[in-house]
Structures are given as C-alpha cells and as structure tokens.
Amino acid sequence: MTIRKASYLTLLLLALLSAVSGYFVAQLRFNYDFNDFYPAGDPDLDYYQQYSARFGNDNDYVLLGLEAAPGRTVFEPEFLTRVDSLTRFIQGRPHVVHVSSPTNATNPVVEGFGVFNVPYLHPAEPARRAADSALVYRTPGLVGNLIARDARAVTILFQTSPNITKPPGDSLLSAVRTELARQGFAPDTYHLAGKLVAQSIFVDRLQWELVVFMSLSVLLVTGLLWLTFRTWWGVVLPLVVVLGAILWGLGLMSACGVSIDLMTALLPIMLFVVGMSDTIHIITRYNTELGYGTAKKQALLITLKESGFGSGLSALTTSIGFFTLMTSSIRPIYNFGLFTGIAVLLTFALSFTLLPAMLMLLRKPELRIPRAEGHSWDGVLGRMFRVVLARRRLVVGLSALILIGSVASASRIRINSALLDDLSKNDPVKLDFGFFEKNFAGVRPFELALQPAAGRTIYDLQVLRETEEIEGYLQKTYGLNFVASPVTLIKSVRKALNGGLLAEYRLPGSEAELARLVRRVKLFRNKPEFRALVLPDASAGRLTGRMPDVGSIRADALNVDLRRFLRQHTDPQVLQTRLTGSANLIDKNNENLTLNMITGMSIDIVMVTLIVLFLFRSLRMTVVVLIPNLVPILIVAGVMGLAGVSMKVSTSIIFTIAFGIAVDDTIHFISKLKLTLLQEPSLFKAVRKTYLMAGKAVVVTSLILVGGFSTLIFSSFDGTFYVGLLIGLTLLFGVVAELTLLPILILYFYKHKPKEIRQPVPVLRG
C-alpha cells in the first residue's frame, strides 16, 4: 500500500470515528447539580442521605424577597393583598410542596376538639393594622424570617420537590416571574435565592460562556498561528486536529452519560489551547526541514521521528496532570480530570495520524530558505542564549530572590469557601443572596440531627430541655437567625391549647402536662412543619436553621466550639446529636483540598522524575528539569497569597494542571537535547542547538497557551476567572524559566563529557 493510499484510509477511518462522536455530542446536555459537589464516598454524605430521606433536603427551597414601596412598610393593605395573591399562585404551581408567607402564617388556637388558625395579618381589615404589626413583632419566628426587621420587605419561602431538575425548575421560576410582573412588582423590587435559582442561572451562563470563550480562543489562536507560519495550512491543520480531539473527548463524555457542568465546561477551552502544543512542534519542525530543502516525505519522516518521542512524553505528563484530579472526592472535578486527560491523549493520537495524513496529501508548500534569508528566529534565539549565559549570575540571583518572596507570600494562603464562591461580589445573583443575608435569617442552612437515647422519645421532657439549651446556644453564640426543632412544636402546641397567648409559648413544667400536650400533637401532625421536624414515631428529630454565609473558615471555628458545647452540656444518656446538612458537606471538601493537591503534585513530580531518569539516567538532570517548572508554581502561589485569593474547590486544581502543562516544553526540550547529544559531542553546542531548534515552538506554544487561558478571565464565574488568570501566569513564568534557568542549570549540573563544556567562552563571542 502506498503512503497516499494509507493517508486516505487513515482520513476515512478518522472521519467515521468523528461521525460517531458527533452523534453522541448532539445528545450532550448541560447540567449543574449542587449535590455533585458533596464529597463522594464520605461517611457524612451517607449519613446525610439517610437523614434527608427522613426529613427532606435542607436546600430544596426558594426564597422570594419582596420590597415595599419607598417610604412605606409591608403592613400596607395594598402590599399585603398582592403578597397574599402571589402566595396563593405559588402554592398552586407544580413541584411546590409548601409555601410559608406572612399572609398564610397563622396562630393556631385549640378550642374544644377543633383547631382554629387565626392569621397574624388581615389585609382586608385596615383597622387591625396596628394590632397585627404589634403581634408580629412579639411572635418568635416571624421577624427576621418572614418579615424584615425594618418592616420594609417580606419573604415568601416555597419548598420544592426533592432534587428538582432544570427544565421544571426553569418553568416554575418563569411562572413566578411572570406573576410578579402581573402583580406590579418591578425587577428591582424582588429578589430570588436558593439552589433552584443558582442551578438555572449557572447552566444558562455555562452555555453562553462556552460559546464565547471557544470563539475568542479560535480567533486568538488563528491569529497567532498565521503570524507564526504565514501559510493557510499552518492555520487550518492545527485547528482541524484540535477541534477533532475536542469532538472525540466530548463524544466520549456523552457516551459515558456525563453532562457538561461547571468543571467539565472547561474541557473544550482547556483542550483547545493545550492540544495545540504537539501540532505546533510538528509543523515547526516540518517547516524547518522543508526550508532547508528536504523532500516532503523525508521531511515528514524526520519530523515524526524527532517529535514523536517528545510529544508522547509531554502528552503523558499533561494527561497525568489531569488524571491526578481523579484523587478528588468531588465528582465534577473527578470527571473533568478523567475526560480531559483522555482527550489530551486523543489529541496526541490525532496529531500523529490525522496531521501527517493531511500533510502527506497536500502539495509541498513554497517556503523561504531560512539560511539564505538569515532566519530571524535563529538570530533572536541566538542572541537571547548568549545574553542568558553572559548574565547567568543575575538570572539565578534574581530567580532566588523572587522564589524566597513567593514562598513567604504563599504562606498567607488560606483554605476558605462559601456557598456562592464561583460568583463575583457584584454578580446580580450574589447580590440577591446578599439581600437575604442583610434583611432576613440568611441563606446558609444548618442541620443538627437529634437522636434520643435508648428508651426515650424526642418528646421526653429531658430531651426537650436539652434541645432548648442547644437552641439558645445556637441563637446567642453560634449565629443562627432562625431555628426550628421539636421544641418549637411543643411550645406551639402549648400556646395553641392556651388560647394562642404568647406567654404560653414555652415548654411544660411537668411530665404530666407534657403527656397531655403530646396527646394533642396528633391534631397537628399532618402539618408540613411538624412532619419535617419529628418522625411519626418520635424516634428522632431535627434541629434546622439558617444563618449568613460566613465562609468555611469561620464555620469550622463555630463548629469546633459547638461540638465542645455539646460535649459539656449534653448528656449522651439523654440525647445524642450529629452535625449534618449540605453546608457541612461543602465545608468538608476543604479538609481534602490540600491532601488532593499534594497528592496530585506528587504524582506529577514522580512521573517527570521517572521520565528524566529514563532519558538521561541522571539524578542531577532530574533536579535540572524540576526546578524551572516548580519555580513558576511557587511564584503563582505567592501571587495568590499576595492578592488574598483563597484556596477552594475551583482554585485547588490550578497547580496540578499548570505543572502538567508547563512541563510539556521542558520534556520537548530535553528529548531534543537527548537526540542532539547523539550527534554533538559538546554539551554546550548541543544545548545551544537544542535551544535554537526548540525555542520557536516553546515561545509559540506558550503564547497560545497564555492567550487561550487569558480568555477565561472574562468569565462571570470566579473559579473560571482564577483558572484562566493563574494558569496563564504560571505558563508565562514557565516560558521565562524555560528560556533562562533551564539552559543555565543543564550546563552547570549535567555532567556529559566535562572536557567539552569547559570551553564555552569562545563560542559565546561567536
């Protein structure tokens, strides 16, 4: 079979595989599931899943905040009438389980065998406005929960079906917004918050940003490729290869049933810029050989021979950088690492099948002969090489100073996260969440499981008294602005049985009185708020609440103090407790961030060490290769510390990814050096020749990588912004280290024919 026929067959086979991938990509869906960010396999997650099966999820709700007109309060009859109409509308929507609103809040009163629910507010009776507002401010659980402290806003809280997906969720939110407009509420007078809101907006933004960033990356990379190669095929062929790899990667992801989420949305952009490396190294080397007059077939064979080994190793190190993310217990990060790592290897496969096949079928391009025209790249790189070696003490000294400062600054990095970490502080969604933080109880849920000791029930008087003591601590010291528990139920029933008087809102003073109350609880057991706090057989209970999102560092400190309080003030022979809930699980991720990052970096370093030992069988050379790639990582860590950027889920992936990508050029450099040393006895001449041969590809690929990642800084997600900024900075510092530190370190440390490297000065002057 001729080479041309083999090329046609290769293209046909790859086209068929691409068609299959395209079929699966067409079925790919966007998704954002808050629950995916829980630590998979964690015992606390297993416990919370059992807990939520009994009591419901703590984040299946939407908060709707409504502001009164300027200069007016929420007790105006006209405002309350609209709120009541909106409450009734929401209650009738599909997927709405329960609605809590100031207009449907009632004060139950038991008379005889009947229960009468007396509303706190009477919009149709203006004369009762003063009495109603006074009662509201005296009643626990209303002000700060349903009505703002300054009486300028109210909240309607509607509980939704468990884990509602985006389509029905979007339909519900759209219906609510339409009704708000019909009721005369302007967009700036209402606020929506909750998991359902974040899920809807995040997915819409993911779709938009994926299109925008891919478009920007294609334009930027196309421009850089044109400036580099000045040929149409030097632009089109790399784009075809990389876009093909993206198609394959997304197709595989879809075939495995994985959706595009906040992390996997980075795969196309990440692969687009990272995947260019191999194609640029191949085309640069191919171009060079053609420019020296080599025949097309021979030039391609030389290129594949010289680039194949280095590209294979660099693809391996880059993919390992992504595969190490699979050590994370967070499913989106795991998926991102797995499929991006596979896609990197697919890019390598396409670079050495699709690209050579297309080059073989194209006519030999007409190129300028580099030597005849003084090859500008050789001139620039040659001068740079001489300057670097002439000022090697300055380069090393300056690098050491920067490194020391970076390490000192990096020590200031703290692990901290919040529920809406990925949104900037001025984002409209975050501002809406902030509205509830400022005016109401907050948006961070709190959950404490209550388990009576053997032989007791949740309605045991001692159990209730200990629960009440815990409630007091949580409200006064911990920071809960709203709390509900079985104590709330018993107090409410006692009040209802005593004419609804607020003075009767307290625990009974004796077991006999409690027994009478418990018998009457069955009158209310069908109310949703009762079912959500106590199991029907009273074998377990739930203490739930809300507070401002204080961040994981503050939350961890509060939880340490809470556990100490529980150990000192709770008798395990009476009541046992366990902290749980979605916020607690998200905070737990921080415990694994540092370990995952260290594990990932360690795997990367070990793999690079093995590769260098395989190539050079020299521990000194291993140090030489690691230093220029670790220095940029430490510098960026210093930048994070200096800028006050916290370590969190989104930023924890930066270092392993950046190291895996940055080491690519070093692998290409040393693999070319290895080949050059077989022909060039002088280490100095071999390093210089390698510098000139690999320098152009190193600079071009680094520019494309930095430029591609820089497009991510326009993201509305802080996590994506920092991935783009910090990885871009790492690669920028990395190319500087590659062109300055690396040749100095090789010449100083690597002992290869010492007699040849003692005479570099005459060559420097040439």
Automatic annotation (TrEMBL):
It is a multi-pass membrane protein. Keywords: Cell membrane, Membrane, Transmembrane, Transmembrane helix. InterPro entries: Acrflvin-R, MMPL_dom, Mycobact_MmpL, SSD. SUPFAM superfamilies: Multidrug efflux transporter AcrB transmembrane domain (SSF82866). The chain crosses the membrane at residues 210-229, 236-260, 266-287, 308-330, 336-362, 394-413, 593-616, 623-643, 649-670, 691-715, 721-750. It is found in: Cell membrane. It holds the Pfam family MMPL. PROSITE patterns: SSD. Residues 239-361 form the SSD domain. This is SSD domain-containing protein. It comes from Hymenobacter fastidiosus.
